[in-house]
Design brief:
By secondary structure, the chain is an alpha/beta fold. Helix content is about 50%, strand content about 10%. It has an 8-stranded mixed beta sheet. The structure holds nicotinamide-adenine-dinucleotide (NAD).
Length: about 325
């Protein structure tokens, strides 16, 4: 078996030329790895390089690893060439089960024996993705948050035929490569972070549908209320600390009954034309004519600032 130890990984293959494939490539280049990019058509290279140029501004601001360079990237549209010398494979192909299953059937033979293959899938089960793979024991989900070159979280889970050592290896490698890996306890649709995000999203849609808040109101409330605190304390610790010396016990004993109040609607609202229009109009109004690329660049600059502030706050605590 040719699986290197996580600290000996030199070359990563990032498969797919969309925002996630290019975003992962930017991250790994910035951490000092050689990267081979598999793109389905060589026409995708120009767009890929645009993502890299945008990402590099933030990555330089965060600090590059010694020797990191965009020159250490090569492109190919041949899958076998892409993975031939890879020490780790990050798959970022379109989110279609049939397509990923066919791809893993090929990757299972092409990727050097034992080398990890991680899927960026946003919610497909690895048990399903690996169904036709001839070497499923080294396949895992490694789900990033977008953009992968900025947000640290990677959710990891194996499928039924993945071995535990592969999951552990993925955890150790992502940690070394500067990510915040979370090994999930069970294979569940939507994983952990997306499910939490969706719960928030459902409540927001209910409030807009009922005329209780506009999209702008929702974002003002989030950005000035929970969001700054959530960057430093998750929901559980925020409630624990907020309840004084009694902590979470006080929270649950005192406020537990309130969980039964009909505040949380949980079921998604009907996505009527009216709700759709309210959401679209509200967001367009808030965007005030700004181009999405400018807003994405502004977002990236601000996230760099948040990440630096969080790091400094944690170092000081
Ligand atoms: N976009 C997001 O916000 C986001 C966030 C986290 C995870 N993901 C997941 O990451 C993966 C990639 O997402 P994306 O938005 O970059 O995808 P995308 O659909 O934009 O791009 C996929 C790329 O895959 C390649 N491709 C096309 N057909 C292929 C085939 N038949 N075989 C192999 N490769 C092929 C192409 O290079 C294409 O650019 C998906 O699984 C997605 O669910 C997406």
């Amino acid at each position: 078996m040719t699986r290197p130890s996580p600290e000996n990984v030199k070359r990563v293959a990032s498969l797919g030329g969309g925002p996630i494939g290019a975003g992962w490539a930017a991250h790994f280049l910035a951490r000092g790895y050689d990267v081979t990019a598999y793109i389905h058509s060589l026409d995708e290279e120009a767009k890929y390089r645009q993502v890299l140029d945008t990402a590099w501004i933030s990555l330089e601001a965060l600090g590059l690893a010694p020797g990191a360079s965009r020159d250490r990237l090569s492109f190919t549209d041949d899958l076998a060439t892409a993975v031939k010398n890879a020490d780790f494979v990050q798959e970022c192909a379109p989110e279609r089960l049939d397509l990923k299953q066919a791809l893993y059937k090929k990757l299972g033979e092409l990727v050097p024996d034992g080398v990890l293959i991680a899927s960026s899938t946003s919610g497909l089960m690895m048990t399903d993705i690996q169904a036709m793979c001839p070497s499923p024991e080294r396949t895992v989900v490694g789900h990033p948050f977008n953009p992968p070159y900025l947000l640290p979280l990677v959710e990891i889970i194996g499928g039924k035929r993945t071995t535990p050592d592969a999951v552990q290896w993925a955890h150790d490698f992502y940690a070394l490569a500067g990510k915040a890996p979370l090994v999930m306890k069970k294979e569940i649709p939507g994983f952990v972070a997306t499910r939490l995000q969706e719960a928030l999203w459902r409540e927001a849609l209910h409030m807009v549908a009922n005329g209780e808040a506009t999209p702008q109101d929702i974002d003002i409330a989030l950005m000035n209320g929970p969001a700054p605190r959530l960057a430093i304390q998750g929901q559980c610790m925020a409630f624990h600390v907020a309840c004084g010396a009694g902590g979470m016990a006080t929270n649950l004993d005192q406020f537990g009954p309130a969980l039964k109040l009909p505040w949380t609607r949980l079921e998604a609202p009907e996505l009527t034309q009216e709700l759709r229009d309210r959401m679209v109009d509200g967001c367009n109004e808030a965007a005030a004519g700004r181009h999405f690329e400018d807003m994405a660049a502004e977002r990236d600059r601000a996230i760099v600032g948040v990440l630096k502030a969080v790091k400094a706050a944690r170092a000081g605590s």
